[in-house]
Specification:
Distance between the termini: 14 Å
Number of helices: 3
Structural class: alpha/beta
Order of helices and strands: EHHEHEE
Shape: flat
Strand order of the largest sheet: 3-1-2-4
Strand content: 5-15%
Number of strands: 4
Length: about 110
């Protein structure tokens, strides 16, 4: 089970133009983090979205990947680095779980089958 997740990329990963119910950006990386966190005990998931709008691949590799690697050294061995896309927003570190997340109830949680 994945216990931590780092997203790197540009505006697509950041979520620019993809508003949630409250109008805040909620991109694919944030939505994936919510789904991953839902499969862990409450408070047992780490997530950071390092994506910055306007960044190009060489900038992502130079700036974000080293930060993701550093996080991997401090988080559990199950840390995963997201794929990159070829976007300035602050780094967001949060637990995206339903009750403490930025967008309670979003996206809708799948029913647990286990």
């Amino acid at each position: 089970m994945i216990g931590s997740y780092v997203a790197v990329g540009d505006s697509f990963t950041e979520g620019v133009g993809d508003p949630g119910p409250d109008g805040a950006f909620v991109g694919w990386a944030d939505r994936l983090a919510v789904l991953l966190a839902d499969r862990r005990p409450e408070g047992d998931f780490d997530y950071t979205n390092l994506a910055v709008r306007g960044k190009l691949l060489d900038q992502i590799v130079a700036d974000q990947v080293p930060r993701a690697v550093e996080l991997a050294r401090t988080w559990s061995p199950s840390v995963r680095a997201a794929t990159t896309s070829s976007g300035p927003a602050p780094t967001r570190t949060r637990s995206p779980s339903g009750s403490s997340g930025r967008w309670p109830g979003w996206p809708p949680r799948p029913a647990r089958s286990w």
